[in-house]
């Protein structure tokens, strides 16, 4: 479960870094501008991980991502991750364990994944029609990146990412399909870990 959380966060953060092509950057700018006007966002998604050579499916996970400003809550089967822009709480439900750790300066979180695309990757437009544009991103410094390439599918009408996939150096393909995208008002307490709801959890505070 921890590996899925890490993989998902890395993939999401990778997918919005961009550079070079001004037309592709415009599409990403439109996505970011659209999100800045929202009071809250509820995103449903499905993650499928498989191996390139065998095409064997390694995992298939569904989840939700709630975002409001710097606050976020990432919900996966058996785990919930909370963040406030400064610290992150990872709650492993079956293990009854919560790990709290500070975010490093500049570290990408699920709340910032749709707006950070200023440096680190080059990109090109692979295809475009009336409804969608497909953008491929690749890292400028491959030796320090976990991924070789990421492909984004952007809905042009609604200015949102519908799906994306990534190929890792280990030969794995991670596909994330956005199954729902709801703009809604989210109360702050929904996005904050409340220990009183889980009195038996062990707290590992690394701050």
The low-confidence parts are: 13-18
> What's the tally of helices?
2
- Give the number of domains: 1
Average pLDDT across residues? 80
Percentage of residues in helical conformation: 10-25%
Shape: globular
Radius of gyration: 17 Å
CATH topology category name: outer membrane lipoprotein receptor (LolB), chain A
Order of helices and strands: HHEEEEEEEEEEEE
Sheet with the most strands: spatial strand order: 7-8-9-10-11-1-2-3-4-5-6-12
Summing up helix and strand content along with how strands pair, one would put the structural category as: mainly beta
- What is the CATH homologous superfamily assignment? Lipoprotein localisation LolA/LolB/LppX
Described by strand count, sense and barrel closure, the largest sheet is: 12 strands, mixed
Strand content: over 45%
CATH architecture: Clam
Count the beta strands. Answer: 12
Topology at a glance:
Blueprint: H1 2-15, H2 22-36, E1 41-51, E2 57-68, E3 71-76, E4 79-83, E5 87-92, E6 97-102, E7 121-128, E8 132-139, E9 147-155, E10 160-168, E11 172-183, E12 202-205
Parallel strand pairs: 6-12
Antiparallel strand pairs: 1-2, 1-11, 2-3, 3-4, 4-5, 5-6, 7-8, 8-9, 9-10, 10-11
Q: How would you describe what is shown here?
A:
The chain is 14% helix and 46% strand. The chain is mostly beta strands and 207 residues long. The chain has one domain (2-205): Lipoprotein localisation LolA/LolB/LppX (outer membrane lipoprotein receptor (LolB), chain A).
